[in-house]
Structure formats: C-alpha cells, structure tokens
Fold this sequence. Notes:
membrane, nucleotidyltransferase activity, transmembrane helix, Phosphopantetheine adenylyltransferase
Amino acid sequence: MAKVITGLLVLVGIIHLLPVSGVLGVERLVALYGISLGEPNIEILMRHRAVLFGLLGLFLVYAAFRPTLQRLAIIAGFVSVVSFIGIAWSVGGYNESVHKVVIADIIALVALIVAGVIHVVGRK
C-alpha cells in the first residue's frame, strides 16, 4: 500500500507542477488559463502563483518517497485543491481552460482522499 500512496502523491505533484511554465511569461499564462492579462500586476501575481505551485508540486513528489512527510503533503495538497475548487464553484462563469484546471483538481482531490485513507488505515 505504501507504493499506492507514493504513486498518488506523485500524480498530485505532477498536477501541481503543470502550471509552473506560467513563470516564463504572459504567453504561457494565456495558453494555460485562456485569460487576458491586461496589466503588469496580474502578470506578477500569476507568475508568482506558478512559482508557488512549483514549490508545492516538488514537495508533493519529494514527500511521495519520504513516508514521514506524507501526512503533511496530503494535507497541503488537500488544502490547495479544495480551496481552488471551492473558489471556482463559488465564483462560477469560468472559461474552458479554467474548467480543465477544476477537473484536474477534482482528480487530485480523489487521489489525495484515497492516499489519506490508506495512510490512516495503514497506521493501525
């Protein structure tokens, strides 16, 4: 079962690493999210968001192979995906590109729930 947790955390880590290319600039952010970044402040915030996702993604992948960090990784990933899904659903009206992010986060959420259950049950 430890290998299942490892695989699930790697999957969630990869999902979090996908937006890292946004740090490269506006063109990449537009491709990722299908939005127009009309001013430099939004570009700064979105590129910084890409860096933070990279950090979380790297941590998730690293923790996949470090059992002592897996609980923290599961919690951090859970907070990330639940907050995004919740915000997206509460705001609504998002485009197809953001809808794909919501779907990816739902997949990540299911993976984290399964990993969390296995982690808790495996400790007993």
